[in-house]
Task: structure prediction
Amino acid sequence: MSLIEKLRKVAPRENSGSISSNRFDYQKDWAICKLLELSVDKDFLLAFEFYEDIIVFDSSSSPNIIDFYQVKTKGKGKHSIATLLSKKKGSSILGKLFNNKLNFNEEANTLSIISNCDYKLNLETGENIGISVCCSELNKGEREKIAKELGKELNISWLKEYFDILFFEKSELTIEHHSDITQQKLNKYIESKYPNIKYNPTLAYSTIFDEVKRKNNIEKPISTFDELVKYKSFSKTDFDKMIQIVASEPNRLEKLKSEILNRLDSENAPMTFRRYFQKNWSNVEIEYLKTNNLLFTKIEKVIHKVIDDNETLLNNSLLNSMEKVLEIVMTNKPIKEQLIFDKDYIRIMILKDICDGE
Result:
């Protein structure tokens, strides 16, 4: 049975992470850092809130192995084997994590606890340091404690070779500064990939974070691998495309904004609209940077088609052309029925499309 076929048969445990609004942004920032790390690979698929907080497949089309990650934040203190084995509602942190190995025995590559805090672990060497500690490095007593407690919790006979795939990792992201650290990492990555492009670091980070948040919070039940790819995952291709957009598009859109403002000034456009345009352009710009904004994209396509089909409307001044295009655009039923983008917002989109196509 292939991994994709097995995904249809193994139902994910109930997970409130997608539904609850009080999940730490820490997890999303860790996911962005993981995407940056994975981007050097030929292919991957990182998925949110599916079996675990985050899982990574070795392929976005025909995967064979999975890495499972539980992201745990702690305000103070350290994680210990005892706390990780402590049961809440019948399950422990390690029990939930290790259950993935039972469901995907051949495909489970690694099982990792990711935390912002240190671990209180007794190692075979006697040292208690390191960014990442493998379970096989723990001393005999700690390993026997894990085997005994998980054996009872999961009703299994522990296989000692499983120690080699279980990891305790301390993230370099701190609770206080995880967004700052993530943005720094993202900036460094973009600048190395696109050294000659001027971009907006804050806008790049917020755009990517919002897209990660959107996919993380999707509540739609996922029943197939194709649905997982579409709704709750990033492939290498997805991430590369998103990086390219946030790196290159803002500079082009900024130039387009200046061009539109110059034309509005030359035509003595009403001050109220010019002020609205300047105030709201950044909001429109953010929507253009999003990779999967279905309603905005639908409106954008309608505007583009109206302009392509009615080029004679563009023979007047920029403002008059915009208003004539708007009249036709607003007769489109989906646009009339939507309640998110008002007329002035759509006017900005029309101005952008008119000037962008010239």
Summary: The CA atoms of residues 115 and 346 lie 44 Å apart.
